[in-house]
Design a protein that fits this description.
Elements (H helix, E strand, L loop, with lengths): L1 H21 L22 E10 L14 E2 L3 E5 L4 E6 L5 E6 L9 E2 L3 E5 L4 E6 L5 E6 L9 E2 L3 E5 L4 E6 L5 E6 L14 E2 L3 E5 L4 E6 L5 E6 L20 E3 L2 E5 L3 E7 L5 E7 L6 E3 L2 E5 L5 E5 L5 E5 L11 E3 L2 E5 L4 E6 L5 E6 L10 E2 L5 E4 L4 E9 L2
Antiparallel strand pairs: 1-32, 2-3, 3-4, 4-5, 6-7, 7-8, 8-9, 10-11, 11-12, 12-13, 14-15, 15-16, 16-17, 18-19, 19-20, 20-21, 22-23, 23-24, 24-25, 26-27, 27-28, 28-29, 30-31, 31-32
């Protein structure tokens, strides 16, 4: 499949060029900034490795987002070159491994019965959770980067050209399709849809958040996270590139060159909003909202009134992942493969580890036992604890 691989490499390059030109604040008229070097810090915390392993060749040179699926006792992980693993989350012991015969394009989604992934040839595939064997597959109109999502009866996949498709989890029968619109230029990002019992919420490169009826795919409401402005396609980028965060009966969403907003999940009515620009979902912890801004600033906002508590700007332009709360710390990865620990109280950088020299693109995940799961671009996967330095 050389043609498809070439297209991926070119599209990945396009995103890289867009990032270089566009991630210099909320206007592409700003001067392009180089990523700052890894800052020297006075470490008071350290990353203590619990276990580690390699998952094939990871992203294998492609601009993908192959985040592992954490289901509690087990972690399911895949590599672009077709390696599949089920691993005990507490020990790292391999429960089963399987060799998928095609290149994998998305991270793994799942429900109580199956795992789901998408292939280089734009197929949606359901796999057994017991051994990784194929159960069913369905063709998709075009490539999918985000992990398919399921509520147990419905599986939803979102293509890079704005289509959202619903399938029966039991046998893969196509149930509905919603055709969204995307601008000429967009980020090569992977915002997975939210799939509830009655509603599917999808984010689009047009800056819109749209709720669809889970039974039919019909639109219920839409919310504008960002409005294109400027004369060039680059200036008009308003992607919603991170999966919305569910908070009781509302969803929190952020867009690139848009805003951070809380929206009623039933009606789409805005509860509050403030100007923001980010490529990743916000994180909440201890009554505060944490955001990795597009320019590399980490920002803490007070949840009650969204006032800024602190800003950490020593990681500027390092293409940070979504922050993850770990007890008294935040943890982010960056494009050079470093993990950074930040004091949640004051935003100070307190810990640092070079994890994967090919970079970290997918956010860290918190496991059921409280430990931190990290997946690097090269396929390095490890579980850490963040502890005071000895």
């Amino acid at each position: 499949m050389p043609a498809i691989r070439d297209r991926i490499s070119k599209r990945g390059l396009l995103m890289g060029l867009a990032l270089m030109a566009a991630l210099s604040g909320c206007s592409t008229t700003d001067t392009f900034e180089q990523p700052v070097p890894v800052p020297e810090i006075e470490a008071t915390a350290e990353f203590k490795r619990v276990w580690s392993m390699s998952v094939g060749d990871g992203h294998d040179g492609d601009f993908l987002y192959l985040a592992p699926l954490n289901t509690g006792d087990l972690i399911y992980a895949a590599s672009a070159d077709g390696e599949l693993y089920a691993v005990a989350s507490d020990s790292g012991k391999v429960v089963w491994e399987s060799e998928f015969e095609e290149r994998i394009f998305s991270g793994l989604g799942g429900d109580g019965q199956y795992l789901y992934l998408t292939t280089e040839n734009a197929d949606l595939v359901a796999l057994s959770r017991e051994d990784g064997s194929e159960v069913w597959r369905q063709p998709l109109p075009t490539e999918v980067l985000s992990a398919p999502q399921s509520n147990g009866s419905l599986v939803v996949a979102q293509t890079t050209d704005g289509k959202v498709l619903g399938f029966s989890a039991a046998d893969g029968e196509k149930l509905w399709q919603y055709d969204g619109t995307v601008p000429v230029l967009s980020m090569r990002a992977a915002a997975a849809p939210l799939v509830g019992g009655d509603v599917v919420i999808a984010s689009f490169a047009s800056g819109k958040l749209i709720a669809l009826a889970a039974a039919s795919g019909q639109p219920m409401w839409q919310y504008e996270v960002g409005q294109p402005q400027g004369r060039t396609e680059l200036e008009r980028l308003v992607d919603v590139a991170g999966q919305p965060l569910v908070i009781e009966t509302a969803v929190m969403v952020v867009g690139y060159q848009g805003k951070l907003a809380l929206v009623d999940i039933r009606t789409g009515q805005e509860i509050w909003s403030r100007k923001a620009s980010s490529l990743y979902s916000p994180m909440i912890g201890g009554g505060q909202i944490y955001l990795a801004s597009a320019n590399g600033d980490l920002v803490a906002l007070r949840g009650s009134d969204r006032r800024e508590v602190w800003t950490q700007d020593r990681l500027a332009w390092r293409q940070l992942t979504q922050p993850m709360v770990y007890e008294d710390h935040l943890v982010v990865g960056d494009f050079e493969g470093y993990l950074h620990a930040i004091d949640r109280e004051n935003g100070k950088l307190v810990g640092q580890l070079e994890f994967d020299d090919e970079g970290i693109r997918v956010p860290a995940q918190r496991l059921a036992n409280g430990n931190l799961l990290v997946f690097g671009n090269s396929g390095k996967m490890a579980v850490f604890q963040v502890k005071p330095q000895d």
